[in-house]
Amino acid sequence: MVPLLGFLAMILGWIVSVPACAIAELSDRQAIAIANKEMEKFDVDPSGWTVRLDKDRHEWQRTRESWERWVETEARGRTADTKARIEEIETVMKGKEVWLAVYNRIVPPGQRVRHSHAIVFLDVKAANILAVINPEE
Questions:
Q1: What single DSSP character describes residue 47?
Q2: Cα distance between residue 14 and residue 118, in whole Å
């Protein structure tokens, strides 16, 4: 009986010491909360933006293609920087389950705003930020 209690105590201690994110996958709500906190570091008030989760990396593919078109047509000396940024993002995502928190600024009708898009890349298993495309990029 004593060895069984010791074993149970050991298992209970392990369960308590393991972070919740290591046991269960990140929820949508948790992912958005983590991304919002990261956006605030860029002086972005998330209440002025719509946010949605992209779990299939479609938004990154669109953004990457847009950047690559820009490099081919208008880059004027920033080609290396843009290609390096693409490679940096691809590298941090490699082999990971990644969700994207995609932000779009809420713009009143008739107004035009620059820098109206941002993406936060989240590692679902580790519940942390891998990269950010901030509104200024």
A1: G
A2: 39
Per-residue confidence (pLDDT) for residue 75, from 0 to 100: 66
133 vs 44: CA distance, rounded Å:
12
Per residue in 43-83, pLDDT (tens digit) is 989 999 999 999 999 999 999 999 888 888 876 777 888 88
Instruction: Give the C-alpha separation, 100 to 120, whole Å.
Output: 6
Is-contact 97 131, C-beta < 8 A? no
Count of alpha carbons within 13 angstroms of residue 49, beta-carbon side = 24
Whole-model pTM: value is: 0.77
Distances (CA, A) of 76 to 65, 80, 82, 114: 17, 10, 11, 20
Starting at the edge strand found earlier in the chain, the sheet holding 117-123 runs: 49-54, 98-105, 117-123, 128-133
